[in-house]
Amino acid sequence: MNIYTKLASIDVGNHIEKKGNLSYLSWAWAVDRLLREDPAANWEFHDPKFFGDTVMVSVTVTAFDKPINMQLPVMDNKNNAIKSPDARKISDSQMRCLVKAIACHGLGLYIYAGEDVPTDDRDPMLVFEEQHLQSLRDAALQGQDALRQAYAKIPKSDVKAAFWEKHGQALLAAVA
């Protein structure tokens, strides 16, 4: 599987933030996930461009040796350009632009297409294991309380319950 396909198949739904009628992927989570996939990934914000009293921000994200440039106007929660935005509005838009550029590498791109859930033909248990098994193993090594806390952070689902049926005893056995 190529890296774009791998990133595009990740369900980012639990990391989406809502503001007004718009959905945003948490920039902190997107950066973390990108760096887990490509520790050499980097980005560069460019100087904002002014169009009258509105502002356009841009960033180039280089991941997997591929630079992708994105731009985004400084907007309100109705997707209207903000006139004379302050530094905070510009900074917030830069972070949204960063996520948009990361999305062009595959992670969460479906948010911009208006889709609710990515298409993933793989077994849901396999996807869940890819997303959570290693972090739960790491938590188990820190003790039962750490394991409980890590497991509690995972949203409830049928797959989560089936995962515990399959791996719970082994995880408990790994508790330090």
Task: Give a description of the structure.
The chain is an alpha+beta fold and 176 residues long. It has 2 domains: 3-113, DNA repair protein Rad52/59/22 (Enolase-like, domain 1); 124-173, no CATH class. 47% of the residues lie in helices and 20% in strands. The strands form 2 sheets. It has a 3-stranded antiparallel beta sheet with strand order 3-4-5, covered by helices on one side. Strands 1-2 form a two-stranded antiparallel sheet. A hairpin with a 2-residue loop joins strand 3 (42-51) and strand 4. Helix 5 (124-141) runs antiparallel to helix 6 (144-152). The two termini are 35 Å apart.
Strand content: 15-25%
The number of domains:
2
From the coordinates shown, what is the CATH architecture of the largest domain? 2-Layer Sandwich
Binned, the helix content reads 40-55%
Distance between the termini: 35 Å
Uncertain residue ranges = none
Helix and strand succession?
HEEHEEEHHHHH
Please describe the biggest sheet, giving its number of strands, its sense, and whether it closes into a barrel: 3 strands, antiparallel
CATH superfamily of the largest domain: DNA repair protein Rad52/59/22
Total strand segments: 5
Structural class: alpha+beta
Spatial ordering of strands, largest sheet: 3-4-5
Topology:
Elements: H1 3-8, E1 16-19, E2 22-25, H2 27-37, E3 42-51, E4 54-63, E5 66-73, H3 87-103, H4 109-113, H5 124-141, H6 144-152, H7 158-173
Antiparallel strand pairs: 1-2, 3-4, 4-5
Helix pairs in contact: 2-3, 5-6, 5-7
Quickly describe the structure.
The relative contact order is 0.14.
